[in-house]
Amino acid sequence: MSLKNKLKSIITKNYTDRYWVLRKKYQSSSNTLLRWYYYCQLKRLESRCCADLGVSYHDASSQFASKPILPHGLNGIVISRKCVIGKNVTILHQVTIGTKITTEKNTSKEDTLAPIVGDNVYIGSGAKIIGNIRIGNSVLIGANAVVTKDIPDNYTAVGNPAKCFPTKHNYK
Question: What is each CA distance from 28 to 59, 85, 118, in whole angstroms?
Fold first, then answer.
């Protein structure tokens, strides 16, 4: 591993650790002034991460049950504001977990539909999870899969559009 890659790895780890500490302080603080301070720090760190690493968390409004596992760092990960992510979720690089915006007929009301990701989910590199869908528990999503429909518990999704198959082994 070259020196440049080692430094980038250290910077990535520092950013992610610091981000999750600040995020926890932001969510647990009841003081409005402190929340505003933590929010500004989060946005500052987020913009630095975007510039250096290509990550986009879109602020602390996404709901995480626990810190996700990011084995490749934050490179190119986009997570929507309104999505809900469960415990022990592994997210590889270049993953998009996005919303779908719909407009009702005869009105100008817009609705943002975001995915709900269950516990013990593995999301392969380049996967796209879009829309008002539910990903069950212990699900494997293959690399470059485009998921636009619900996936039940203990299934594997691969392809574009994603096709679901039962998982033979229970990965936890």
Answer: 15, 18, 23
Q: What's the rounded Cα separation, in Å, for the pair 61 and 125? A: 24
Residue 43 to residues 19, 78, 96: CA-CA distances in angstroms? Answer: 10, 15, 20
- Going by their DSSP bridges, the two strands 122-123 and 140-141 should be labelled as parallel
Tokens for 10, please give them.
């250290």
pTM exceeding the 0.85 threshold for the entire prediction:
no
Q: Which amino acid is at 84?
A: V
**Spatial separation of the C-alpha atoms in residues 126 and 56, rounded to whole Å:** 15
Q: Model confidence over 124-164: pLDDT tens digits?
A: 989 999 888 999 998 999 999 999 999 999 999 998 888 88
